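Q: I'm teaching a short session on how sequence maps to structure, and I want students to see two examples side by side rather than one. Could you give me a first protein with its sequence written out and its structure tokens following it? Keep the formatting plain so it prints cleanly on a handout.
A: Of course. Example one:
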Amino acid sequence: MERLSARTLLLGGVMIVIAALFVGAVQDPDFWWHIRIGQWMAENGGLPAHDIFTFTVPSHVWTDHEYLTEILMWLVYSKTGAFGIGVFFGLITYAGFYLMYRQVSRQPFVIAGLGLALGAVAGAPIWGPRAQMITFALTCLELYWLQGYLSGRSRNLQFFPLVMVLWANLHGGWVIAFVWLGVAIVAELVGWAWEPSNPAHRMHVRFLAIIAAASAVAVLATPHGFSVYLYPFQTVASVAQERLIVEWFSPDFHQPFLHPFEAMVLLLIVGFALRRPKPYDLLLSIVALALALQSVRNIALFVAATTPVLINSYSEFWKEVSTARGWKLTVPTRGPFAAITAVVLVVITLATAVHIAGETLPSHQQSLTASNYPVAAADWLAAHPEVGTRMYNQYGWGGYLAYRFYPQPNRRVFIFGEAALMGDALLNDYEDIQTLRPDWTALLDKYAVDYIVYNRGEALANVLATQPGWKLAYEDPEAVIYVRSASP
């Protein structure tokens, strides 16, 4: 009966409910080309050396940094469909939150439960079936091991280079691991300078430096060799990606879905004002916040890094105040409350399961796909194989169209979501066309585009209706297809 306490009710309820945020339908536009290239690799027994989906940049060398994830995605999808993909990535995200819970499990359960709930809601815009969740979960593992090592409770961090071997083959976000290691090293150097007589800081710096060096070597254990080092920096250095791709934009706090993230930032600052943070916690929070403010996709990393810091700050403040004032927290543990706890947890579990089932129903997935991608337009193209030779398509639809039509030569896409593979030159040309800059028609001529698949009602689609060289061949509530009616 002691297990069915108020602590169990709150923490158990939170850990059950947040699962509903992690398991859902597929909405990431990159999902489609991920599973298509995963299928290609499974069938061909190797990695793509060059781009295979476009007619615009087929010579570009493809450093497929997440090839192993894509193969796994295809294998799961081929057996269980989108439902399996949703559950697969939901469990990965949940594993990250469980590791965060392990960092704060000794803290007052009310603060821990509320902090974990806030972190889950703050990251809600990012969670979902997407490869980035692997970097989120492995970040949580790294930070859990770092906390254990710096607190003297564990030396599991010695195994981290082995984790890096796996991480480097799963997702290009592996580079963030060195950011967190760098934060820990800097924090320990500060501690060493502040307390030169304390040998612990010197030992920590030496150990962390060895782990960082071993991890850097471990990254080489990929099919890409030294080129794997360059990929993350090509992405970060791309001005075109930051200007064009929504998930690389800075957070817009006018958007309601970002208010929980904003609240988390403010609470973190207040927590530091109430209780002076350790150098490691302060540096970790500053770096994580800088990453999140630079790009909305990094909110997931902010949640991973600062949720335990937030919980620990308020927990330690509460302990100081309650001890000074003689407050004691009493919780009911008698039989009736235990029975109520059991019933409530069962109800919460059933309600969460019903919600997840509804989100992952095939009919719901089909409805979402039809409302976000040119499904009917692709059906029309499939029924009219003679139409067109070179396509211009909306960026976010490129992956879906590649999934539907590869390897048909006249259905190769203009662009798709692997932005680093596309290169800034193509991204800039794409943007010039979609924003109707003065060279937009010349660029269509340059690439010999003779049909366009685009969002209905957008500027490009509206202007094409006025161009004598183009005619509307297909239209539905989501998409239009314009076909060139005369040679340029």
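Q: Perfect. Now a second example for contrast.
A: Example two:
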Amino acid sequence: MPPHQQPVKLTSEQIEALEGMYGNRFLLEPAPDHKIPKSGMSAQEAMRLIGEEMVLDGLPARNLATFVTTWMEPEAERVIQEALRVNFIDHAEYPQSAEIEQRCIRMLADLFNAPGETTGARTQGSSEAIMLGALSLKWKWRGRREAAGKSVDRPNLVFGGDVHVVWEKFCRYFDVEPRIVPLKPDKYTIGPEDVEPHIDENTIGVAAVLGTTFTGHADDIRGINDYLVGLKNEKGLDVPLHVDAASGGFVWPFLYPESEWDFRLEQVRSINVSGHKFGLVYPGVGWLVFREKSDLPEDLVFYENYLGKRDATFTLNFSTGSAMVLAQYYNLIRFGHDGYRYIMETMKYNARQLAKQITEIGEFELIGGEDDEQLPLVAFKLAGEHDYDEFDVSAQLAAERGWMVPAYTLPPNAEHIKIMRVLVKETLSSSLATCLGNDIAEACKTLDAKGSLHPIDRKRVKTNTGF
């Protein structure tokens, strides 16, 4: 190897000298990855090293797959920054953080039309909220069965294939039989006729979704509730309903206020919602709200006194930061009801404009109609025959413009259906939505051109571009 191509070998003294001159030792050294380094580095070096690693991640503003909030106001970020060191669970030392949690729960209970005094909990997200809510369903069912002198060894939970995977996790972790209603090629949500065959005396509850991950639509919550009310009145079988409003809980009250899905319905006993989705807070914060205090079994609440006072805890986690609780309160008082409505209406408007533009491309059909109650998103799939599929379009968008638009298949029995989905959030303005629509059209043109190649060449192109 010619001398000028020889690898550079430096002594530790030379590396330290370069460090002092240029301030970045990892230009010539790999980043630590297997062992804690023997010696540390300066704060500036550590910051620069991590910053250089993070440029490989995607830009949050172009991540149209995530439901999670990717932007907050500078004032909200200051609130978060100042609360990062506050341990929320330590109510003795930080009582106002606990009070603000309760304010948020009361505000959400009012938003969800709770009939009176209630209770709830902040959580790390809707996954923890769902675990806690489903545990309350199991405990209440077990109490009813024991009071009647009946067996408690075969609990089951009914939900559709459109739920988040956390519902299946709950069933596996807490020994509950999942009774999953499969989807159909032309039906992506569930209703009363779907849950009816699965309910019996061992059913701890039914879970219904307000704003599915797959298409953004809602289960027929009103219809399921009416069926469960009839079941209670006619057969004495009291099956509660939990609403998984992780995505829709901050959307429906503002876009569809007349739609009854919440505590206005008799059998709805608990609701979860993600503050870090359309609650417009950074991850992670979720909320669980009960209809009445009695819906939270007392023996699921623990009491401890080793942080300075006797406190009740109803969590799966223990220590956690106060920052996102305060950030949620910031949003609630900053935007108010009118502000949230304006933000949701703006996102819905931009979603409809993007949907219209995608339809006009001529290659796609939308999932759902313009009059549907739906999250501010656009779900669509290819129409007709093509030499490429939705995954190809997604990859082409990422390669050409850096857009992260997910392509995926639906759950059983509609797993052969491929869909793409764009979340239209605050950061996707009207002009950016127009750019995205144009880029989708250009991606299809590129793929059409590739599709005109000989099949062997087409396969080579797809292999070389990571399709």
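Q: What should students look for in example two?
A: Point them to this: Residues 347-464 form a domain with the Aspartate Aminotransferase, domain 1 fold (CATH 3.90.1150.160). Also worth mentioning: The chain has 13 helices and 13 strands.
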